[in-house]
């Protein structure tokens, strides 16, 4: 199983960050790669569309409001992986209440691609996503 993780300090308190990203259906609010999200099954499944029109379906598999993190599994996507589970987590930064650290991590089995290719793919997605989050919060 392969994995990757990207972290970024962003210019808002942990609670402000969680208020923006903590909803499982909230990706279009901060991630330009996902302009549309439709909640299904009472909010436990999200049907996403990227700018190319590709469909991505993900299921919420873990959620902790108090600890500010959730995990999800990909059910359907154009990515060369199986068994994909990812976690989006908001951390406090010791001694600071005006910033937060956001960590986006995932583990998966490459399928039809090398481990390095898939790790690079998701490392790029996570880094670009956290850069977009930083820009949204800095605006």
Structure, explained:
The chain is of the alpha+beta class and 139 residues long. The chain is 23% helix and 47% strand. It has helices at 14-21, 115-138, and strands at 2-10, 36-40, 45-49, 55-64, 69-76, 81-93, 96-110. A 7-stranded antiparallel beta sheet has the order 1-7-6-5-4-3-2. A hairpin with a 4-residue loop joins strand 5 and strand 6. The radius of gyration is 15 Å and the shape is globular.
Radius of gyration: 15 Å
Q: Tell how many strands the DSSP assignment holds.
A: 7
Helix content: 10-25%
First-residue to last-residue Cα separation: 38 Å
Strand fraction: over 45%
Indicate the low-confidence ranges by residue numbers.
none
What would you say about this model in short?
It contains 2 helices and 7 strands; from the N terminus they run βαββββββα. It has helices spanning 14-21, 115-138, and strands at residues 2-10, 36-40, 45-49, 55-64, 69-76, 81-93, 96-110. A hairpin with a 4-residue loop joins β4 and β5.
């Amino acid at each position: 199983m392969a994995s990757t993780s990207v972290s970024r300090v962003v210019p808002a308190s942990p609670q402000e960050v969680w208020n923006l990203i903590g909803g499982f259906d909230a990706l279009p609010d901060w991630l330009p790669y996902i302009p549309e999200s439709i909640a299904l099954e009472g909010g436990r499944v999200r049907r996403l569309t990227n700018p190319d029109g590709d469909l991505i379906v993900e299921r919420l598999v873990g959620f902790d409001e108090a600890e500010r993190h959730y995990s999800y599994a990909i059910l359907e996507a154009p990515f060369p992986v199986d068994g994909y589970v990812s976690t989006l987590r908001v951390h406090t930064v010791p001694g600071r209440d005006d910033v937060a650290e956001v960590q986006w991590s995932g583990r998966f089995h490459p399928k039809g691609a090398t481990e390095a290719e898939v790790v690079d793919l998701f490392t790029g997605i996570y880094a670009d996503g956290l850069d977009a989050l930083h820009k949204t919060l800095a605006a």
